[in-house]
Write the structure tokens for this entry.
Amino acid sequence: MSSTKQRIRLMGAVAALATLALAISCRGFFVNPTLTGVSVGPQNLTLNVNQVWQMGATGTYSDGSQKTLTSGVAWSSSDGNTVSVGQTSGIVTGLQTGSATITASSGSCSACSGSTSVSVVLTNVTGIVVSPSSSTAKINSTTAYYTAIASPGSVDITQGGTWTVLDSTNTNQTANFTLSFVSGQGEGFSPTTATAGTYTVNISYPGTAITGKATLTVTN
């Protein structure tokens, strides 16, 4: 074999190896980077009732890179009655006042999920109606429950408002009652250290001077 042919074959082999090395380097010599974490945005989002928003998920990979996750993400809400979320779309809707944690998960690693809080508020409140208009509770025995509906839109603000109890002199007596929300019943008022008498139950909503009222009679 002539030296010229040998040189040609050697050059061809070198070129083939160079092409193979370039192809390998483009794909990643060892393995493709793996997903190591997920973050959700925006953080601490505030929505109005009935407002819709597109959430986003960003993946962090083992090589330090990040990219927006457009598929393979499972979304969930800690309280679907307050904030709903599309399981695959990440579109959230504020349904009623309150807050919920929205979580996005992708992959199988324990850290491959992220979450954020979404709060739902009501603006331009023109009225608040408390139901029932009057109720009775016995000291250290029974609990009176109330719900509150704000207008416009007939929005339930039982959990989103601020409840207080006033006596006949308009002195705040809330500390003498145990307040606790029960789903399906409303905000509960249990007289603990309160004395027998007639009280006014008030609820106000952040950002407005409107107040809803009801009567609570406490008995021995």
